[in-house]
Design brief:
CATH architecture of the largest domain: 2-Layer Sandwich
Order of helices and strands: EEEHHHEHEEHEEHHEE
Largest sheet: 5 strands, mixed
CATH topology of the largest domain: Heat Shock Protein 90
Structural class: alpha+beta
Number of strands: 10
């Protein structure tokens, strides 16, 4: 029986009815003369949908198994480079810091990660090598004065000595004790600087007055070595920093210049101002006309305990920490040290610090 025309929507109504045991999709729409109905059997669609449902139910476990196996294979293949990186990184120890992670050359993220880690391992290897060398050099330098102190004490106790012999032995022990104390203090200074735990003052420091005071102290050493120490010109300039540390920096440079100058030579100290970009810079220069530094030694003079062969042959006092300490002080004040030198001509050490 056709539906009531007045109850049908304007665009018609779809419904599924069973006719003679088969589903039929019927469209009922109102027209001016009455109601029109158009139907189409959908039993084939229902059978196809039922068959697809059963096929999906039966195939789902197999597809799930295949997908899991494929995902496991792909994940293993994708993570194999990560596993190699992790295994290689786990094998790197203090004894084989030169070992590096494999790089496949694909340029992907894993290669970039390996390259970054290799660069980090290279820095760690260099730092570990420096620490190891530093420890060995420090042990060597400390062993000599300690051995002298012990040997002197043992020898002087073997039999009764005269008062003069006791005094000479005590003087020798005192001298080596002072040398050991100085070395330990230098090592402590460098260790604190490396750990960044040493607090430096931030007061206003007049470099001209500081330079004059340092020259007054160094003239005693210069006079003993037969060296003339002069002020080539001291401009008035002020920096922010630690007065004692900057004075020690100057004394280190003056002491080095005096040590490596020939008797009758001259060491000159200059202080001036220059403009570097938007910043005013205080420039301290210590010039000598001594033995100079060879081009093969110049890049290494700020390394700790480094001493050129000619220094050892001349038996110059010191253990090779002075310039390392001076460089540390300059850098902690935001400055830098530059060295120009020629063998047999002399050296110029230039300290540049931010001026106020």
């Amino acid at each position: 029986m056709p539906p009531d025309r007045s109850r049908l929507p304007k665009r018609g109504r779809f419904e599924t009815l069973v006719q003679r045991g088969k589903p039929v999709r019927i469209l009922s729409a109102a027209i001016p003369l009455g109601v029109v109905q158009i139907g189409i059997p959908v039993d084939e669609f229902a059978e196809m949908l039922s068959g697809f449902t059963w096929t999906a139910l039966l195939a789902s476990p197999l597809l799930l198994i295949l997908a899991s196996a494929g995902g496991y294979w792909m994940s293993r293949r994708a993570l194999a480079p990560v596993e190699r990186i992790a295994r290689t990184a786990a094998d790197i120890e203090a004894q084989n810091l030169s070992k590096r992670l494999p790089i496949r050359g694909s340029g992907d993220e894993l290669d970039q990660l390996s390259a970054t880690l290799n660069a980090m391992f290279a820095r760690l290897e260099d730092s570990f090598r420096r620490i190891t060398q530093f420890t060995a050099d420090a042990s060597h330098e400390l062993r000599t004065p300690v051995a002298i102190i012990r040997t002197t004490a043992e020898v002087i106790r073997r039999k009764p000595r005269s008062e003069k012999e006791y005094a000479e032995a005590l003087d020798r022990i005192l001298a080596e004790s002072e040398r050991t104390t100085e070395l330990v203090e230098d090592l402590m200074h460098l260790a604190r600087a490396d750990a960044d735990v040493e607090d430096l003052g931030t007061e206003r420091v007049g470099l001209a007055e500081l330079a004059q005071a340092a020259c007054a102290d160094a003239r005693v050493l210069a006079a003993a070595a037969g060296i003339t120490l002069t002020n080539g010109g001291l401009s008035q300039c002020t920096v922010s920093g630690d007065d004692r540390a900057l004075r020690r920096l100057l004394l280190v440079l003056l002491d080095n210049a005096i040590k490596y100058s020939k008797p009758g030579g001259e060491v000159q100290l200059y202080l001036g101002l220059c403009q570097r970009g938007d910043w005013r810079t205080a420039v301290l220069e210590v010039r000598d006309h001594g033995i100079g530094i060879g081009p093969e030694d110049l890049p290494r003079i700020f390394e700790r305990f480094y001493r050129a062969a000619k220094d050892r042959s001349r038996k110059v006092d010191g253990v090779g920490l002075g310039l390392a300490i001076a460089d540390s002080i300059a850098r902690r004040h935001g400055g830098e040290i530059q060295v120009e030198s020629s063998l047999g001509v002399g050296s110029t050490v230039r300290v540049m610090l931010p001026a106020l």
